[in-house]
Amino acid sequence: MDIAQLSNQLNQTLYTLRYGDNPAELYEPIRYIMALGGKRIRPLLVLLSAKMYDEDVENVLLPAAAVEVFHNFTLMHDDIMDKAPLRRGQQTVHEKWNANTAILSGDVMLVRAYEMLLGIAPDKLGKVLTLFSKTAAEVCEGQQLDMNFEQREQVSIQEYIHMITLKTAVLVGFSLELGAILQGAPDSDAEHLKQFGDNVGIAFQLRDDLLDVYGDKDKFGKQVGGDILSDKKTFLMLTALEQASPEQLQTILDWRDNTAAGITEEKVQAVTAIYDQLHIRQQTEQQIDFYFQEALRHLEAVQVPDERKSTLRSLALQLMERDS
Amino acid sequence: MDIAQLSNQLNQTLYTLRYGDNPAELYEPIRYIMALGGKRIRPLLVLLSAKMYDEDVENVLLPAAAVEVFHNFTLMHDDIMDKAPLRRGQQTVHEKWNANTAILSGDVMLVRAYEMLLGIAPDKLGKVLTLFSKTAAEVCEGQQLDMNFEQREQVSIQEYIHMITLKTAVLVGFSLELGAILQGAPDSDAEHLKQFGDNVGIAFQLRDDLLDVYGDKDKFGKQVGGDILSDKKTFLMLTALEQASPEQLQTILDWRDNTAAGITEEKVQAVTAIYDQLHIRQQTEQQIDFYFQEALRHLEAVQVPDERKSTLRSLALQLMERDS
User: ipTM score here?
Assistant: First the structure.
């Protein structure tokens, strides 16, 4: 099974999608954000999951694309809420146009995502839409929790994992479940693939947190230490806050909310130094590995010959070991 | 057929809806906006349409409520875009909480509206969701056109009618179509009911435009002349702009964008005087009647005994003749 080839097929599908034309102000931002690219991980996972049950994934292409459209809808709205100026190195929609346009274009994207699922066979449609809707609401809950956490003094590691599970992981899990359901996989397989995806999704987000601090400057697309500079409560920060000595805690708190000009490098270095002292990097890698092993355990339980799992396994591994 | 009784059943359904609990910041605004009330016209139309084919509308209650949830989702997002401080005399969600909350709670409402339709019989589900999605996208297109028109110098009457058709009328049309489809009405009946609704929806919006200027101060919930004060391009204003003499046109343009303090009463009176000179009230009433007659023509064509159409006919008439 060739990922590059599958990726091609997927991009072809995404490229030929028609969202609408009039009024242009509503539909141009959709084409814009969809053209920004990205790894297209979620739809690829839909296809890889489907391929385990049927080589012919023609019927899965549009539902896979629907997941990518939904994902980009969440990005468009999240970027407004987070006041993010850039997305994949380009202006965000609310910056290039305005917030109203980003709200309304996002709304239409959510509707289009649903529409793209309506070609699913009638005997599976209700089930898929029920799971998709549940997932969509959970992603919104995750975003709300993320915003809540910014306003809170204390957030536990457990709360953080719950938040990223909703905000990031459940859509990865749904992607795998979707591919399986569409190809008539047994319920237990679909459920294990969902769990595989949820765990990969959590590990993926923890890897993201890690790369922000310990990523390769040249390969990582964003500023290294961006999370530290914006006082983001990442897994690394929350772990450090839990384990810091009184002196280390004081240092972190002194730097927190210090956004004076010119302190950039110094702040990142100071907080990273404490992370190093507390072995936060190693602890985060352990957590990533924990969720990755959980994921593999569920993949093991899927009732298809092992050779059919290899592409999914190696893609998951790539996502864990990525340095950008 | 008793509208009050049907309305009771509907309110009971709306009252028992559960949107979710955690995080509270996400779900509290949904309960808030749904509790603000309103005429509940759209779900009532779903039920009345359904009743023409089957006295038992138990299976239609939840889909009818879905339309009301969808409608309130559009209100929540429109209010952000329009920077509206009040909705039904109460603070709008983005005022009471903030814009981010209104964006995200609205998103979940759209998802919940879809979920509430998933109990529809599998043989009808795909069709209903296709029509619902088409309608939802059209409503967004209408809102975008409405915003575009604010920025434009010239808008034709035809463009205006197209905009209100999308923004307001198609959801009324869908409501009637939905009730018919759910009770197994013939396709041609469903289509005529859709057309009936679209035309009632246009007439309803024109009535709204009219009431803003010529409504009874005591009964109309908003400030009389609000549209004039905010330079809104309503049917009345666009008709006046088309028919004004050079002098009248100059007067209107002089007042336009004049938002100096204390001119409120004077501006409303001056513009209304020109409306009076041009018989805008009568012309608007003629247009309302035109669309109402179109609506009735489609209701005539529906293949059920005439006595079953009476409640729908009299409700539509009430909506046309309402003074608030």
Answer: 0.96
